[in-house]
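hi! just following up on the protien thing from before. the input was this:
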Amino acid sequence: MKKHLIIFGISAALVLALSGCGSVPAADRPAAELPVTVNDQASAQDTQSAPVSTDAPAVVSGRQDGERFESVIMLEGMEETVRYEHVKSDAFGFEMDYDYESLTRQRFATCERFLSLWDDPEKPENYLEVRSDTGNAELVAEVIIANLSNEYEVTSEYRELEHAGRCIYLDASVLKGSNQMADQLQAVYVIPAPDGCRVATAHYSIEAAEGFGHRFAYMINTMTVMERAVNQALTDEQALAAIRQYCLSSNPDLEGIVNAGEYPVYWEIASSDVNEVVVLYRSYTGALVRYYIDRATGETYVTEFVSGITPEEQRTEEHLNVWDYMA
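and the predicted 3d structure came back as:
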């Protein structure tokens, strides 16, 4: 039976992750960025000599998800005031602060991404991706090294992050078989966690090494490992309520139209399975709008059908994450 809400007159795959990672040259890194370097000249094999602990430090920031505040960082030898937003990712098990005036937050099924506001989302150059992995941090680092070594001369060392503790740091900035810096640099932080590890990968162009490269390093230094909500998934009822809230917040006049009762407006569950739920919105214009929602991530794309105007259901450019509209 369809669950519905009717109102008449009353709203990781590892290789994939490697395609979005980055690196900060250690030589010019401010002390505040990564306070302790455990092994400055470790080789890829040396990371096995002193395994990182899987017991992540129990550090709690006390900040709420979405809380905004100011901080000061060093960029190119000068102090800069940055405006941070605190994020908590239940899906990938981390907390972190990001520079919301320079970056936009994106959520995908395999990772969270923090992308430069000035980049083309289809061809990004400067971005940070964070994902979780159930593998041991040492073994995950080995696989990442093997993949990056196809293109880069990879160096590795242990680093101490302020809140997340000891991690494996991989630098991929020199082209393989040369002494030349690559146009696109990568730095990878493999951070141990009780359920495996977190992998934070920074991508940035060589021109942005002093800018985005350092910004990403500061962000990673704010990271805290937290328990993942592995079984978190949207229920039909949550999806229905979230889409209604989204429609009402997107159109300030909609609530008044609904209350007037002149046109039929309703939301209902059009289909539902273990991975996806589809919410149908019948607009006061007569359009049938469907929201295709990934239960695990909340990522949603939209289609529209208007009888007599469109020959069939057509996908629009509209997209959202329904977790942003949960009550």
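The radius of gyration is 23 Å.
The mean pLDDT is 81.
cheers
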